[in-house]
Known about the structure:
The protein is α/β, with parallel strands linked by helices. 41% of the residues lie in helices and 15% in strands. Strands 6-3-7-8-9 form a five-stranded parallel β-sheet, sandwiched between helices. A two-stranded antiparallel ribbon has the order 1-2. A two-stranded antiparallel ribbon has the order 4-5. The longest helix is centred in the middle third of the chain and has 18 residues, at 122-139. It starts with 5 loop residues before the first strand and ends in a 13-residue tail after the last helix.
Amino acid sequence: MTSSDTSVQPDSAGRSVSVRRRPVLLVLADSLSYFGPKGGLAADHPQIWPNIVAAELDWDVELVARIGWTCRDAWWALTQDPRVWAAVPKAGAVVFAVGGMDSLPSPLPTALRETIRYVRPPALRRAVREGYQWLQPRLAPLGRPVALPPRLSVDYLESSRDALAYMRPELPVIATLPSVHRSAAYANVHSGRPAAAAAITAWANDKQIPVVDLAEAVRDDICSANANPDGIHWGWAGHGAVAAAMIAAIRAAAPEPVDASPSDAG
């Protein structure tokens, strides 16, 4: 679907009119998509990059994201979340804004982190979480293993792309390369990024998918005092830079020029 898609609806006089349907920007992402300089924000916050992009293109946006999501989680969302199913037929483009978490050092099993919330009783859960948070930065300098190996990240991205192509072969898909960080929680280690970026780039080139390099867009911001103190999430300049790069990628990938003007006709 592009901005030229229309539906026929009756006006106040009962006459049929052609009304443009706004395309949906479907974003499958991690917390970088909705965290700002002071923490997590609602999906409709106007300063996070998905909403900046949608506003510029005059599209709607469906942001499906959670903290810590990897390419595997994006695949699970695509196949299991009915909100995603509803958005795909109306989508003007789909963005895979995942892959950064995959490349972070995860010496402790990812499954352990994910299951801490299920530990009972609460006192034991708090103790396990505190132990994990104490060990993670001390083991992170090992640099490996990463949360998800590049080969598996690309496998999940390709499964997602292939599923979308089966349903909507004309639908533009945009990929992203991992961001950068200066997080004490990971001992400032990101040795897994080069391999992850290379694998995603090779896959995207093979499938002719546009790629937005998040690191290139946010490097200055993440190293500034305006970024989130956690050293992972961006400030507003970072969101703006990512939005600008994403708008350019979507406009280049769209099967028709993106026109922000309405196309109602009598």
